[in-house]
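Sequence, please.
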């Protein structure tokens, strides 16, 4: 691995934190490709590392939002409790139970690690399109919060987080606006806390199994935390909705790069 790869990788860590601070999610979806393609870390371990980085970064960010009283803790509980149950079960039991190779047909064999990357790229494409097409959510939805629907959405996001190591903020923020009636800025702040809880629960489901390079992981996390602190301070100057649309284009580009790399191995 070249010094340039290290420099680009740590720069991507800052960008990931910056995007989480500005838009309440989305930046975490960059960490797995960075770990895999720049730092040459196996995909399954990369998702474990991603969970720690996203959890620590989001936790620091959520403290800043809590001090500003922008987090709705009732909505957080309604979403996060079912979500962290599903992410723990997914990470502790479902992911280890996946066969390796995951798919085999005649001469075509797809190992579990590569299958995770294909799924990750697919989710990135869906996330990028969702960010670009996202309607203007600056005005909160009217009516009482639909906590039951939020809980169901939390279950689904937990499975996604547990499988690919991404926080799912691109799904959480719109649901907090549409189902909980939060303003966009409160939805972003609440999303960051939910992502922190989900990610740490998922990481705890893995920590007993993987050999972790703590020095590298803490260094990478420190850069990401610097990014989210910068993002929180800049967030009042930008519209999260338009930021997400711009970031959606970057997510699509990274997803296409991943597909080209992985298909080239077949």
């Amino acid at each position: 691995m070249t010094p340039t790869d290290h420099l680009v990788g740590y720069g991507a860590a800052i960008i990931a934190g910056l995007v989480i601070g500005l838009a309440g999610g989305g930046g975490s979806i960059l960490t797995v490709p960075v770990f895999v393609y720049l730092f040459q870390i196996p995909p399954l371990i990369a998702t474990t590392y991603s969970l720690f980085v996203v959890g620590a970064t989001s936790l620091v960010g959520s403290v800043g939002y809590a001090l500003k009283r922008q987090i709705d803790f009732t909505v957080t509980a309604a979403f996060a409790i079912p979500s962290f149950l599903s992410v723990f079960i997914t990470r502790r039991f479902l992911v280890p139970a996946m066969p390796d190779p995951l798919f085999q047909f005649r001469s075509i064999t797809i190992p579990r690690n590569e299958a995770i990357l294909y799924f990750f790229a697919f989710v990135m494409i869906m996330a990028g399109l969702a960010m670009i097409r996202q309607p203007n959510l600056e005005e909160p939805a009217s009516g009482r919060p639909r906590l039951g629907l939020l809980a169901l959405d939390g279950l689904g996001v937990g499975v996604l987080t547990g499988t690919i190591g991404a926080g799912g903020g691109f799904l959480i923020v719109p649901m907090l606006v549409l189902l909980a009636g939060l303003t966009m800025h409160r939805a972003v702040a609440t999303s960051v806390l939910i992502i922190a809880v989900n990610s740490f629960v998922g990481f705890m489901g893995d920590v007993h199994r993987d050999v972790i390079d703590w020095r590298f992981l803490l260094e990478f996390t420190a850069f990401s935390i610097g990014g989210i602190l910068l993002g929180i301070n800049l967030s009042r100057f930008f519209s999260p909705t338009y930021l997400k649309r711009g970031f959606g284009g970057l997510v699509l580009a990274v997803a296409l790069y991943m597909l080209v790399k992985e298909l080239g191995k077949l």
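The CA atoms of residues 91 and 228 lie 25 Å apart.
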